Prior knowledge:
The chain is an alpha/beta fold. The chain has a single domain, classed as Periplasmic binding protein-like II (D-Maltodextrin-Binding Protein, domain 2). The protein is 44% helix and 15% strand. It is built from five helices and five strands, in the order αβαβααβαββ. Strands 3-2-4-1-5 form a five-stranded mixed β-sheet, with helices on both faces. The radius of gyration is 17 Å and the shape is globular. The termini are far apart. Mean pLDDT is 88; it is low at 12-23.
Amino acid sequence: MKINSLLKIGIASALALSATFLASAEVVVIVHPSNAAALDGTTIKRIYLGKSTTYSTGNEAIVINQVPDSTSRQAFDSEVLGRSTSQISAYWSKQVFTGKGIPPKEVQDDSAVISLISNNKDAIGYVDKTAVTGAVKVVPVN
Length: 142
C-alpha cells in the first residue's frame, strides 16, 4: 500500500512540475535581422493561422512552427495564438481538408528555428527567450 501511495505522490509531483515548467516557458517571436516588416500580435496571429501570407513589406512570410510536443510550441500556441496546441492542429486539419491552406513547416526545436531564420530573410518563428542568439531579431508581441 505504501508503494502505491508513494507512486501516486511521485506521479502527481512530476505532473505538477511539468505543468509549472510549461507555464513558465517564455517564448519570443523572431525574424531575420534584416526583416524590416511592421509586426504586432495581431499580424503574427494572422500569419500563423494562414490568414495573411505576406509581410507589410510585400515579401512572402515563411512560417516556421515547432513540433506539437515542443514546450515552445505549446507556450506559443497558448500565449500568442490564444488556443491549445490540439486546437491549432485541428484548425490546420480543417484548412487542409477543405483546401484552404497548408500548415507551417514544422521543425524539432529552438535551435532548428534559429538556424532556418538566420539563413532566410523572410522566415518567422518563435523560440524560448533563453535560446535567442545574435543571428536573429526578437519581435515584440504587444
